[in-house]
Design a protein that fits this description.
Elements (H helix, E strand, L loop, with lengths): L1 E6 L9 H18 L3 E4 L13 H11 L4 E8 L5 H14 L4 E6 L6 H8 L2 H6 L1 H13 L22 E6 L2 H9 L4 E4 L7 H11 L7 E9 L3 H19 L10 H6 L4 H11 L2 E4 L1 H15 L3 E5 L5 H14 L13
Parallel strand pairs: 1-2, 1-9, 2-3, 3-4, 4-5, 5-6, 6-7, 7-8, 7-9
Organism: Oceanobacillus zhaokaii
Protein name: LLM class flavin-dependent oxidoreductase
Family: To bacterial alkanal monooxygenase alpha and beta chains.
Amino acid sequence: MKLSILDQAPVSSGYSAKEALEATIELAMLAEKLGYTRYWVAEHHDLKGLASPAPDILLGIIGSQTERIRIGSGAVLLPNYKPFNIAERYNLLATLYPERVDIGLGRAPGGSAETSIALAGNFLEQVKKMPELLDELHHFLHHNFPADHIFSKVSAAPMPTSAPVPWLLGTSKKSAILAAEKGMPYVFGHFMSDQEGPSIVKTYRNNLKQGIPEIIITVSVICAETTEEAEEMALSNLLWRVQQDKGKGKDGVPSIDEAKDYLFNDHELVMIEKMKEKQIIGNPQEVRAKLEKLQAVYQTDEIMIVTITHDYEARRKSYQLIAEACDLEIISDCINDK
C-alpha cells in the first residue's frame, strides 16, 4: 500500500500563519524521509485557519528541500484561473523538479462567494466550463493544440522534459465520470464526502475508456501511541469543524484543553459522531487495520492522508507512527538529513 499526504496548512490557535507554513515545509521533508509517495498542498482562499491560497508557491519551496517525493496541488481550483496560467506555473515546477510534479485539479470555490467573485468573477459560469478548461490545460501542458487553433503557437514556457501529471479531485459521480471521460487519474475525497464513496469510484472505473484506472482515496487520520491519546488529539480537530460550521473557528485549530473545556450541545455531539465515521482515529495497529480495510473496500493501492492536530509535533508524530506501522521504506539519505 502506498501512502501520501495532503496538507491543508492549518493554523493552530496561538500560532501564526508563518509558523503553520514552516510546519508544512518541515513535514514535507519528514514525509520524504519516512517513505511517503506524494506530498500535496491544498488551496483555500480567505479561510481563517488555513494558510495556503497558492500551492505552487509552497511547492517551489518544498521541492527545493526534498529530492524524491512527488509534490503537487490538492487541488488547483481550476475555475478560478485561466488554464494557460496554471500550465506555466506547473511547467516551471516540473522544469525545476523533473518527474516529480502532479497537478491535482478541482472545481470547488475554496472560499466564500465574495472571494470567488474577487478571484474569478462569475465562478459558477466557469464551473460549467470545467470540461473545456481541462482540455485547454492538457493542450498547454503538452503543447499540442491543433494547427489551426488560436493557441497553437503559444507555449506555456518553460516546457519541461516531463510534463506535470494532472489528477482530477472530487466527491461525486459527476467528477468521477468527468475524470473517466478525460482519461485522467482520479482522487476521491473520502474525508469530505457524504455520498457512497465505493460506488463513486466504481463509476469511475466503469466509465474509463482508455488507460488503466489510477485512484487515490483521501482520508482523515489521527494516530498516537494509544487510542485514548489519539481520541484526545482528534477532539480539538472536531471542535474546530463544529466551530467552522457555526461561522466561527477563525482563531484556528483549538488546543486540546480548549476542546476539553467546551460544552458540546446535543446537535454538536451528533455532528461529531457523524464526522468520526469518515475519520480513522487510533493507535498504530488500529490505524493500519482500518487503512487496509479502506484499501480493500475501494480496491486501490494508494491512500492520501490528511491529519490536523493543534500541536504540529503531534501531527509529525502521527505520520511517523503510520509510516512505521505500514512498513513504509524509510529513506536515510534525504536532503533534509544533510
